[in-house]
Structure formats: C-alpha cells, structure tokens
Amino acid sequence: MIQIYDTTLRDGVQAEDISFLVEDKLRIVQKLDELGIAYVEGGWPGANPRDVEFFKEARNLSLKTAKIAAFGSTCHPNHTPDKDPVLQALLDAETPTVTIFGKTWDFHVREALRVPLEKNLEIIRDSIAWLKSHGREVFFDCEHFFNGFLANCNYALQVVKTAEEAGADCIVLCDTNGGMLPEQVAEIVRAVRAHTRAPLGIHAHNDSDTGVANSLAAVRNGATQVQGTINGYGERCGNANLCSIIPNIQLKMKIGCLPEGRLPQLKEVSRFVDELANLSHNKHQPYVGDSAFAHKGGIHVSAVQRNPETYEHVRPEVVGNAQRILVSDQAGKSNILGKAAEFGIDIDHETPQLRQILGTVKELESLGFAFEGAEASFELLMKRALGSYEPFFELIGFRLITENRGDGGETISEATIQLKVGDEVEHTAAIGNGPVNAMDKALRKALEPFYPHLREMDLIDFKVRVLAGHKGTAAKVRVLIESGDGEREWGTVGASENIIEASWTALVDSVEYKLLKDLERSRTVASH
What we know:
Blueprint: E1 3-6, H1 22-35, E2 39-43, H2 49-58, E3 67-73, H3 85-92, E4 97-103, H4 106-113, H5 117-133, E5 137-143, H6 145-151, H7 153-166, E6 170-175, H8 182-193, E7 200-204, H9 211-220, E8 225-228, H10 242-252, H11 266-277, E9 294-295, H12 298-306, E10 324-325, H13 333-343, H14 353-366, H15 375-385, E11 394-403, E12 412-421, E13 424-432, H16 435-447, E14 458-466, E15 477-484, E16 489-496, H17 499-527
Parallel strand pairs: 1-2, 1-8, 2-3, 3-4, 4-5, 5-6, 6-7, 7-8, 9-10
Antiparallel strand pairs: 11-12, 12-13, 14-15, 15-16
C-alpha cells in the first residue's frame, strides 16, 4: 500500500494566485479525508497567524482516514532542539505527524546553512530524535536530495543513514528544483533503497514537467510514500499532481493507495479545490479534466460508442469523470445520478426528470454556473426539478442603493427587500458595508421572525470570478458563497453579467439550503 501525502495546503499555497482562508483549508481537509488520503500537511505552525488558527481548529475535525501533519525545519544551528522555536511550534500544533526538512546537498550546507558537514548531520539527528521522544510520527524531507546525490553521493547517503538512526518513520527524497528525469530518479532511489531499511518517500516538483513521471519511477523502485498536491498546485511550475499520480498507481501499477471505492471521488475533489482556490479548472487535465474523456471527431465517436476502449485508456467513471460525446445529449447522466445518490435523492435512469435536470445543468453551465464547491446549489436544483422542494419564501422584489456623497465619508449600501412568507408580506430595509452585506442583512431581517434558526447562520466567504475578462466591466461573473451554522458548511453559486444578480442568486440559495436542512433534520427527529 502506497501512502499518499497531500501538501496542497502548504506547498500548494506557495503558487501564485492561491490563498486559502482557514475555513477553506478545513473544508479541503475534510474532502481529502473523504477521498481517503493518508496524510494532509496543514502548513507551517508559527509561520503566520492563519496557520496557527488552522491547527487550532483542525483539532476539532473528525477524520476517518487522514492524519494531519505539521511542517517545519530542523532546529537552527545555534539552538538545541528543546530551545528551538520552530520545533516547539511543531509540538504545539498537536498533530500526530510532523514533517521536517533538512539539508542533504553539501553545497547548501556550506553556502546556505554555513556550518560544517558533520554539524548538519548532528542537527538532523538531534531534531528527529527530539521530536520522536515526544511521541510524534516523524517524516524527514531530504531537501535537494537528488542534486545532492549527484554532487556528493556519499554525503547524501550519510544524511539518509543519520535520519534512519535517529528514528525517522519515513525518509522523503525531494527533487526540490524539479530538474530530474525519471531514469535519474529511478537509479538514485534504487541506490538509496540498497543503503537503508527505512521507508522511503518521494517529493517531486514539476519544473521539467516530469513531476508525475518521477514520482511513479520512485514508487517502481521502492518508495512507499508519495507527496504531491491536488491539481499540481505549487511554487514556480507546481508540484507533482496527485490527480494523475493516484490513478496511475492504482489503475496502471495495480498498487493500492486509496481505500476501496474512493477513487471515483477524484474528479469531484479536484474541482472542489479549484473552486475554493478561485481558479478556473484545467479542462485538459488528465483523468479529472472535463475534456479528458471528451470525443468530437467522427471516427472517434463512432468507435467509442461501440467500445469505449478504442479511444479511452480507462473508464472515466472509475475516477468520477464521464465520457462526453460532444454532439450528444447523453453525456453527463452518470454524474447527475452519482450526486443524487450522495444527496440521498432516489432517482435512476428511468426517472423522467433526469433529462430535465441534465438540460438545466448544461444551460446553467453555459451561463457561467459551476457546481463544484457549490454542492448546496446543486442539491436545491435537483430537488426543485423533482418537485420535492417547496420554497420557504417568495421574492416580490428588492432595491439596492449605494451612496457616497464625495465628502470623504465612507460608501454605504442600503438594501430594501419585499417578500412573501405564506400569506404574509414582509417589507424590510438594512444598511451594510457593501451591497452583499446589505442584501444579507435585509433578507435575514425579513425572514428571522418566521425562521429564528437563521440567526445561527454565518456567511463565511465570498468569492467573485470574472469569466470573460476581455469584456472588461461588462464581463460575466461567477459568485461563490460559503456559509455555515456551526454544524456544517456549504457552498452556493450564482452567475450573471450583473454582479448583484449573481450575488443575490448565491445568497438566496445559501439561506434556502439552511432552511431545508433544518426542516429535514426536524422531520427526522420527529420520525424517531
């Protein structure tokens, strides 16, 4: 069994244009746990307030598969481990697993660390042993290992031996500069495997576009842990992409790396993380991209309709994807049925509304909607189509005014909303520090007398993505809202050329989802 070690929340956020809130990171951890990832690296404790808060909140997560790891470095040359703030912060994070990196390239020891080679070995030995003495599972990342091995193999192997003797639970060989080729990785991993009995891991960067291939070469030659990121996020050109590594190991190499039955969640996790990162999904990404199993050419279409194996290297369903015949309306039903099962909605291929749901999804997607990371909106869509959902209120209309008198004062927004609950009409107004905040306040003000539980609900995050930047301020936008009530969190989506309309759509869905789940819970309690 290969251990999958995800470092999206630490290495991944070092990529340009990626920044996760604490709430984003917690949701991603839960999604990775559902996928069956063995280890999730949460960040560097003490490096910034966000990571400190994350590790504090992560203690409250109920995880079934994943262990959370805290990341840091070996102790400073001038400190003993018990006096080193980095190592102390790792313990304070209270994670079961700690990963530390150290120098393995003699060039870096002399030029960056500026200590004798033997002193570096002492630092590594003492840091690992001290963390082990405090009951932690310790992984040691050999920074720049492959460059170090090529420059001075004897010293690189000394580092490995030192880490093994100190008690490291896994020694991870890092292609930190991302410049190695698969045959180099294979040869070096074999050499290390012959030198140590300790479990080995691989941590590859993708600067030569070989991160996935290098990771697979390492596994083939004895590595039992693979580190990488969802969608290949990472500094410079990114890290090895787990969305390709996982199915390659499991399907092509026939080696287990996820619990049985979890692989079909892979595409959903890929899209979920993209949405929370506020990035467009790479439709051409292997395995999980929308185009990975899309067929357009006439010869290809004819062949795959007879036998998919003619132009598909695996069945798309095994990674949660779907075959798409670009001129057919049959593609996508399996995705709808899969989500229905997840939501506990009883439909099958014979359900009359299935085609309607599929058509609605396609139409909304053409308008800019995307339901990955917005599962609440998608569940509401399905239940509306099936007639199993009754709205909790009816909008009569709303008006929004944003005002700045130009006297140096703040800009304020006022929302006025008129809606109907049952036979009663509510007409309310509220002022907010922005248009969405004003709409949110006015909507709650109107509804809370009827649905007091709305007071439990908070808007956690609000993201806007421009979908057609070349149109400037006339561009269509997608709004993703994340909400929570202390027990669960959910995402909703809206899209329009008008950012207020898109925000309103996502906001109303977030409120209706809260009301729906409260109603379903009360019915369940009553039935028992």
